[in-house]
Amino acid sequence: MPGTEARKRSVLVRLGALCGLLAPFTFTVGWAVGGMAQPDAFSLLNDEVSDLGAVTADQSWIYNQVGANLTGLLVAALAFALWRAGSFRPPSEVGMLALGIVGVGVFLDGFLRLDCRAIDAGCEAGGTSGLATAHQVESLITVTAMFVAIFALARAFTKSEHWQGRRLPTLVAGFATVAGMIGGTMLSGFEVEGGGLAMRVGLTAWFAWVALVSYRLLHLDSGRARPTSTPDRHQSVASAATPHG
Predict the structure, then answer these.
(1) Given CB 3.0 to 4.6 Å as the disulfide criterion, which of 35, 127, 149, 184 pairs with 198?
(2) Long-range CB contact pairs, 199-205, < 8 A, 24+
(3) pLDDT value at position 5?
């Protein structure tokens, strides 16, 4: 039945939007709490987030299972909810697909682990095993998908009356993400302090945007479920008093 299908879609959309709202929280817990579990030599200013899930990392499950596995599932659920949103979903299949790829990539990040941390003696580029190499490839794909998702959806928002107001904050978050991620990579490559912090700032900007999209999606679905108008009492009385032949 059409009504049952609409209610089922609404439930899926709301659940996906709530998952998107949780994603920034679980990711932040992963790198912040996971960082506190490392020895004093580990630096949030200089060391990469991926080091927290390395084979040699202390309490690596905090990042791998909470910051990566769980966060990836939450982001993928948001991408699915956007696709199921119907008439008010953003008109960009590319953006939604890229968002889904980010979710899958972040999820896999919890399994494709580096061999070691930068603070470990003799560790170079996270290790040379097949798993470490797979991590590097996955990270490149995931970060690229992050860029594609945020800018593709920013462009799509201009074509939708439901999402037009989200274009500017999306672009701001997008440029902040690019600056943080690329800037962090360059700083780390030149062995200049601040690379780890810059990457965290870029990732935080991206996940803040995820929360923004999730909140808007939840608001739109709630608005659709709310009656848009109430019949005028006088018109109802007049209609009832009119004789029908």
Answers:
(1) 184
(2) 199/48, 199/49, 200/31, 200/44, 200/49, 201/176, 202/176, 202/177, 202/178, 203/27, 203/31, 203/49, 203/177, 204/24, 204/28, 204/180, 205/173, 205/176, 205/177, 205/180
(3) 85
Is residue 218 a contact partner of residue 18, using CB atoms and an 8 Å limit?
yes
pLDDT tens sequence across 189-204: 998 999 999 999 999 9
Asked if residue 103 lies in contact with residue 96, where contact means CB atoms within 8 angstroms, the answer is no
Q: What is the mean pLDDT of residues 74-98?
A: 96
Closest CA relative to residue 82, chosen from 73, 70, 91: 91
Answer yes or no: are the C-beta atoms of 167 and 212 closer than 8 Å: no
pTM: 0.90
